[in-house]
Automatic annotation (TrEMBL):
PANTHER family: PLUG DOMAIN-CONTAINING PROTEIN, TONB-DEPENDENT RECEPTOR-LIKE BETA-BARREL DOMAIN-CONTAINING PROTEIN. It comes from the Bacteria. Residues 294-727 form the Outer membrane protein beta-barrel domain. InterPro entries: Beta-barrel_TonB_sf, OMP_b-brl_3, Plug_dom_sf. GO terms for cellular component: cell outer membrane. Residues 1-18 form the signal peptide. It is found in: Cell outer membrane. This is TonB-dependent receptor. Keywords: Cell outer membrane, Membrane, Receptor, Signal. It comes from Epilithonimonas hispanica. Gene3D superfamilies: TonB-dependent receptor, beta-barrel domain, TonB-dependent receptor, plug domain.
Amino acid sequence: MKAQILIASLFFSGLIFAQETKTDSTKTKNIEAVVLTKQVFKKESDRFVYDVSNSPVAKGSTTFDILKQTPLLSTTDDKTLKIAGKNNALIFINGRKTNMDADSLNQFLKNTPAENIQKIEVITVPGSEYQVESSDGIINIILKKKMTDGTNGNMRMSSSANKFFSNSASASINYRKDKLGISANLSGGSNIEPQKYDLRNGSNNASTSSIGDINDPNQNIGGYINADYQLTDNQNIALTWNTWFNKSYDSRTDLFNITKSLDNDNNTVTNYSLTKGRENAKSANNSVNLNYEWKMDELGSKLNVNASYLNYNRKQSSSNQTIASDIFQNVGLISREIKQNQPQIINNFSGMADYVKKFKNEFTVAVGGNYNKTKTDNDTKNDTFDYTYNVDGSIKDINITLSPNHFVYDENIYGAYLTLEKKFTEKFSGKVGTRYEITNSLGTSDNAQNPEYTRIERKYNNLLPYLSFNYAINDKNNISYAFSSRMRRPSFWELNPVKHIITDNNYIQNNPFVKASSVYTNELTYMFKNSYFLILNHSYFKDVITQVPLQREVVKDGVKYQELRYIRTNFGDKQEMSAMLGIQKSFFNSYLTTNFNIGIQRNVNDGYLAKDPTSGDMFNEFINKSKSNSIIVQTNNTIRLDKKKTWFVGVNYFFVDKQQIELGLLKDLMSLDLNIKKIWNDWTFSAGIDDLLKTNIVEIETKQADGTYNYVKNNEFNQQVKVSIVYNFGNKKVKKVRDIETASDAIKNRTR
């Protein structure tokens, strides 16, 4: 994991409306294509529905382009999608969760064309039948249902430029003949992800400042093949294979450090140094899923069974050198070098079964279960080389410290759910359900320096109820309410007890003792004329999982230095409350279509930490009992320039006010994006610029009562120029047989 993951997970984990995301975020599978029509936005039962079929706006766009313009959805980093008030947005296709890790999903969405979407459903509070964690919401893409035989496809090429140039290309094909449907996608690209950091921390006695760049080159290739065969009129069997490969060699971290400390006579000593980090990493994600579906009656009752295997393999090696310097950054002698080897292998076997029974009196019973067995193998090696020199500059001695750690984590999850849904009248419907989950895990390590890691065993059970109702007061007014309880398990990389070096005095520490957190959500929604909406949301998070900056003074050779550790741990509780007012409407005979949201959000944090849970070391206490109120504005506008619907201009804008998150005060973010599109027969040409004003830069500042402070500024060079060309070919009515959920979907989100 690179130092930039510090920023990605550190900052965007607390950014509520802003767009993470991990993601694990987020962090997916077969996406066939996406599309728009008369843009109708309405509330149905437990979800918002955005009808986008047949609109030329989608032509030549990617799935990601369309999603980030959907009401209630947003992005601030052009990587992760979020639902207003939600930490993450999970992608589903026709009710089935997609099947890639977060990094792969981001590239996949940006390389998948958007021609076949019928509508997009936004489920802000998912029911018990969905396997989701934390306060995750769901984006469900419904594809068009045209079943004629034939072949079609499309090809896309695009380029973008911020600090560096990036290129990508993709090709998709669909084939349908009688009972057999085959769909495939291949996409890839290369880019260099630039970031500029300004990191400062310290106290009245000692401080450290690190300023510099990280340039991370990436090469990606991946895709999927899905074969679906209709056994009978009511039964199908399908086999799906997904793959994604990433190579990131010669990733470079270059920081200039200024360290101020006190000697034994309390005189200030200023030292200058350079941190040079070099990293090579590559990862492969492969999964296969076998699916069987039996449609049991005309009302829609069905049985769905899945069996999956997932393999994730990441190899990562890096070196981090601390080099003496002067104020002008002239290079001196190496004082310390840390070489790290941090591989990770994840194997998962999963099975799931769902049975849905529909009755004639508008009553539905859904029952199901799932089993996930996951093993992660992390054979980590951290070797530290401390150099001393003779007067002539030759090496006098090298002190080598070896820190191997082979951490193996086994996890078994058993889950079952029951959901009852009833339409009582044409105006009133409700749903009630519960999910019961049993989690057993065992982590073992051969780390001799930390014997407490030898065996870490956890067993816990969770009962997760759900309730919702929807009342259509009349044809213009609709009101709905939902309550949900969920849990958030730590990602597998968060549990691996390794250090990720930033500078000589600063590092990130993962934590095998992190436990699952709980989330309780209440949401009330009012809709008027299917165009105007008000959403009131309250979420309570218990045992929040985050990174906490712990600081203390340490003495080395009689000099006091400031040490900073970012510790991954459970950090108290928090509450998020929001009120969002929005409009989705077309004006001037559809020459202007606007999606506008404005709201206020209140964050209440209650966290305290003074002891490093991974080592027992004591630090200055880090307290966050802050509250904040912030304004959020988002608008996406499409302007049609001609009657033939061939020229379009897009104007998109968001503003996120400063707010208190777990780590301190996150300063305001803003971005203005412009684009233009031309449609010519089967060709689509587009160009645009993101973050026109260069205002989408993350800044977080923390000050404690004892005088310690921590400041981070992260510029990801979000201003970029983008151009693309898309060509569609073949029979445009071909549709694959169906889309399939896989049994390992819930595990995907916890890989990198």
